[in-house]
User: What shape does this take?
Amino acid sequence: MKTSDYTTSFTVDQTPEEVFDAINNVRGWWSEEIDGSTDELCAEFTFHYKNVHRTTQKITELAPGKKAVWHVVESHINFVEEKTEWKGTDIVFEIAKKDDKTELRFTHVGLVPAFECYGDCSGAWGFYINDSLRSLITTGKGQPNRKE
Assistant: This one.
């Protein structure tokens, strides 16, 4: 079945466990302005970017070396009419061994082209996942938003 949820993937030489650990280091690749625990099942954390975007995620699944899922419980996006577009969506990281490589598949379930923020949000995810998170995994240094 074809989905219109935003998804992207890449492969790296690192182990599934190293990829999983990098995903959970959210301050190292998404934003230094994260409040709360990002590596415990049922924990909640808040992402904040200036006065433009604020979301609270609840970690609903953590399978070391395999998968992490965050459920967006609160969302406020200032640059769109429907400020809560992300509320109720899921952010999914799936990790799989592919020969001697590790594949990371990222899907923001519910972030669909019908959302007003789809273009900007999918573009931002593209950077944070394919550039910043990949860099954190492969070099130990990501490119998160800096704390103000």
User: Anything to note?
Assistant: Residues 6-139 form a domain with the Alpha-D-Glucose-1,6-Bisphosphate; Chain A, domain 4 fold (CATH 3.30.530.20). The longest strand covers residues 53-63.
